[in-house]
Give the backbone structure.
Amino acid sequence: MAKVEVSFALILCFLSLCSLVSPPAALAAPLKDAPKKDGDGFKTLGKKAGLVRHLCNETGHYNLCVAAVEADPRSNLKSHRKGILHIVMDKTISNATAILEYIDRLLADNTTKMENTTRNSLEGCSSDYHDSIYDLKHALSLLELKNVSQYSEMESMLNSMFTTPFDCDQDFIQRTIPAPNPLTGSINNCVQDLAETCMAILNHFWSMFAFNCLSSLALARKTYNRNALTSIA
């Protein structure tokens, strides 16, 4: 029986599928535009739709996503999914950093009287944001996304940033006597929406990777079976 070489990468790809989401619905219908390849090697919707708008449409925060990407001057990052994710992650970090700096200014302001409960809650928020920003900066180094481990670690760090605004609010609410919260909801919500956008882009990218893996494995199996039948004949 003829032997067919199946690459180690395909085997790893197959083993990764247990932790992946199903292929996106966008892949089910044929594209009207002539497909082309983007920087990740995946088919895109072509010039009319635009990769940025197509990808942002998958996030649930379309306007925020498009605004964040189009405002970024790094045009070289806008031609592929990893680059777009990089841009939105940078935007998330910059917004979270602005909140952290605002919190630290409030804590350093000795001219305004502040209740101890409010100060304690702000200190908790400062610690939460500091840790999440640190983790998300590290997550940028995982953008190669070569394996499930990198994907899982990045997803965990993005989820941590996503929950930080909520945790910050709870620092004020979950006290015997709720503390006055000087942080408006819109400030925290923007960071939460950006982090959620990053997670949606990450999952979209990884689901397409899984779909490509399945296609490659199916082709390898088909080739193996064909060669095996030829050898028997």
Notes: The mean pLDDT is 74. Residues 16 and 147 are 8 Å apart (CA to CA). The chain is about 65% helix and 0% strand.
